[in-house]
């Protein structure tokens, strides 16, 4: 399965979540590579690990303010830390579910994990450059990071 | 109850909404010679109907008896007695007929539920095409999902394909193939290899203005019903995108393995200093390209400017690679160049469109890193072999010197 196709599946997955759950579409920004540096994480991060033909990681990271507005758009007034974690977890679950559906023969997809620290060290596959895809929603910016080793 | 092993077409012919009327309709229909099982199922109800038909006459007779008894003096009592007997006679038969009708209705509903479960759980998309090449109401849920059809019923299959296929020739060939399949004298086995949709690339427009490419595999089989009007073409569609992309990737991997030998030869032949200079330049160009992509941009002009910037960086490196005759690099650079040129030609760009360019940029950076690593190994090997040669030379000169002294 080509990297291009895999990236497309993950991007579509996030876009689909915004369209359906939040009822407001997000826009995919210009993707780029994180060269010799790890991509910056925001306040809340959902991580899905992938193993199989290629080992890697798919990360959705978003600032607190964006997640709060997303919850409000979903008619939810509980903006607690736990609830924000749950929201990022749901997005990570969507990524994981779509990956399972599309790549079930090639990969095994781990249960998602959460990170709440901007400086948390995420382990990326050796010799692989993460591809960073900015996700713009309203005036907020989240990031989808896909890093698949060879 | 109809046997469950009957063919799909017959199952599909069941009315979609279960109703009491549907049961009575099937009772009313005359049993035909070609539906033995069905006529067998109708027999007990037909017997009950005959009894029910006879009941009014029995009732009239009983009521008449009552009236006659009434003339004898107890008019009211006689009529009531007659009525009571009539009701007592009617009740078991009515209950029996009602139970029969309910059982038949439940059986039909169970068959319908099973059909719905089967069609709902199939991974493959199943659908039926009529003689007018229109889709029937029956189809699996995955068919609607795979072909992205909201309401497939009565839609012309040609129109469905037109929205998906990338070229008119395949569409025309598909229509001709289906017409051929409908021909009574056609040999299904013989024309099967002619199916132009056995593996076809399709494109779905998405809500974000882009398009999604998939590979679908269609197969068709003519199915005969009990009546000519029930004949249909059973179509099956499956998404083979993963399989096709895997096959392509395998081909690419094989080609890459072949090119490893060429790469090694290229590196051995290349001037080491020029090669290192080229790799440094390439590294810088790739970093600049990535920086251009990561910088913020608003509006189409800025997106096009980004593209032009990356294209310029790639053009400079392509010229250098061609001058040094590094074919493996030139080939990859032409690949990204083609992607960027195609994007430049588009009037409207979105972030998704840049994904292929970024993937190719990553591949180029990987290739440059591999080249540098292999080159370093070659340099080390050359140095080691030079050192070995020097050691050999020294050893040879040591052994040659005493011999020369002995001679003098």
Can you characterise this structure?
The complex is a heterodimer of chains A (150) and B (408). Chain A is of the alpha+beta class. Chain A has helices spanning 3-22, 64-73, 81-103; strands spanning 27-28, 32-33, 44-52, 56-62, 107-109, 113-115, 131-137, 140-148. In chain A, strands 1, 2, 3, 4, 5, 6, 7 and 8 form an 8-stranded antiparallel beta sheet that branches. In chain A, strand 3 and strand 4 (56-62) form a beta hairpin. In chain A, helix 1 crosses helix 3 (81-103). The two termini of chain A are 12 Å apart. With 408 residues, chain B is an alpha+beta fold. Helix content of chain B is 68%, strand content 9%. Chain B has helices at residues 8-12, 20-28, 36-71, 75-121, 141-146, 157-164, 168-182, 188-191, 241-269, 272-294, 300-323, 327-344, 355-407, and strands at 125-129, 135-139, 200-205, 211-223, 232-239. The longest helix of chain B has 53 residues, at 355-407. At the A-B interface, helix 1, strand 1, strand 2 and strand 7 of A face helix 9, helix 10 and helix 13 of B.
Topology:
The complex is a heterodimer of chains A (150) and B (408).
Chain A (H helix, E strand, L loop, with lengths): L2 H20 L4 E2 L3 E2 L10 E9 L3 E7 L1 H10 L7 H23 L3 E3 L3 E3 L15 E7 L2 E9 L2
Antiparallel strand pairs in A: 1-7, 2-7, 3-4, 3-5, 3-6, 4-8, 7-8
Helix pairs in contact in A: 1-3
Chain B lengths: L7 H5 L7 H9 L7 H36 L3 H47 L3 E5 L5 E5 L1 H6 L10 H8 L3 H15 L5 H4 L8 E6 L5 E13 L8 E8 L1 H29 L2 H23 L5 H24 L3 H18 L10 H53 L1
Antiparallel strand pairs in B: 1-2, 1-5, 3-4, 4-5
């Amino acid at each position: 399965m080509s990297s291009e196709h895999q990236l497309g599946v993950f991007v579509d997955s996030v876009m689909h979540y915004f369209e359906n759950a939040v009822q407001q579409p997000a826009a995919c920004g210009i993707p780029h590579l994180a060269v010799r540096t790890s991509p910056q994480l925001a306040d809340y991060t959902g991580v899905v690990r992938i193993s199989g033909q290629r080992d890697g990681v798919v990360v959705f990271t978003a600032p607190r303010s964006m997640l709060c507005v997303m919850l409000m758009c979903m008619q939810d007034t509980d903006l607690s830390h736990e609830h924000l974690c749950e929201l990022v977890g749901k997005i990570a679950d969507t990524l994981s579910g779509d990956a399972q559906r599309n790549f079930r023969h090639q990969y095994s997809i781990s249960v998602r994990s959460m990170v709440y620290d901007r400086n948390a060290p995420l382990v990326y596959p050796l010799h692989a450059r993460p591809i960073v895809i900015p996700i713009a929603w309203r005036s907020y910016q989240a990031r989808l990071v896909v890093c698949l080793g060879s | 109850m109809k046997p469950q092993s009957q063919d799909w077409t017959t199952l599909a012919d069941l009315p979609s909404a279960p109703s009491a009327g549907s049961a009575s309709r099937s009772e009313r229909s005359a049993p035909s010679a070609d539906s033995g099982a069905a006529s067998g199922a109708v027999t007990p109800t037909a017997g009950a109907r005959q009894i029910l038909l006879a009941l009014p006459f029995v009732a009239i007779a009983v009521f008449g008896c009552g009236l006659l008894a009434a003339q004898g003096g107890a008019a009211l009592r006689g009529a009531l007695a007659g009525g009571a007997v009539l009701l007592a006679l009617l009740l078991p038969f009515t209950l029996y007929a009602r139970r029969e009708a309910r059982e038949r209705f439940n059986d039909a509903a169970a068959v319908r539920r099973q059909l719905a479960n089967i069609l709902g759980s199939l991974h493959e998309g199943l659908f039926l095409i009529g003689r007018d090449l229109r889709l029937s109401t029956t189809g699996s849920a995955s068919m609607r999902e795979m072909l992205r059809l909201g309401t497939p019923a009565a839609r012309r299959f040609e129109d469905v394909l037109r929205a998906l296929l990338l070229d008119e020739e395949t569409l025309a060939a598909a229509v001709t193939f289906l017409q051929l399949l409908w021909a009574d004298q056609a040999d299904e086995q013989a024309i099967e290899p002619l199916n132009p949709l056995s593996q076809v690339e399709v494109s779905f427009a998405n809500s974000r203005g882009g398009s999604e490419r998939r590979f679908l595999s269609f197969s068709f089989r003519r199915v005969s019903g009990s009546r000519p009007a029930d004949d249909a073409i059973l179509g099956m569609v499956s998404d083979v995108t993963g399989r096709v992309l895997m096959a392509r990737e395998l081909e690419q991997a094989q080609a890459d393995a072949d090119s490893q030998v060429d790469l090694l030869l290229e590196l051995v032949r290349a001037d080491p200093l020029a090669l290192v200079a080229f790799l440094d330049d390439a590294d810088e160009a790739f970093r600049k390209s990535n920086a251009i992509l990561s910088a913020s941009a608003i509006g189409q002009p800025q997106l096009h400017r980004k593209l032009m910037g990356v294209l310029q960086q790639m053009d400079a490196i392509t010229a250098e690679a061609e001058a040094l005759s590094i074919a493996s690099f030139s080939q990859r650079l032409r690949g990204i160049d083609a992607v960027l040129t195609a994007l430049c030609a588009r009037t409207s760009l979105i972030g998704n469109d840049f994904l292929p360019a970024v993937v190719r940029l990553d591949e180029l950076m990987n290739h440059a890193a591999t080249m540098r690593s292999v080159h370093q190994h070659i340099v080390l090997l050359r140095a080691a072999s030079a050192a070995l040669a020097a050691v050999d030379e020294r050893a040879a000169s040591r052994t040659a010197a005493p011999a020369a002294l002995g001679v003098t």
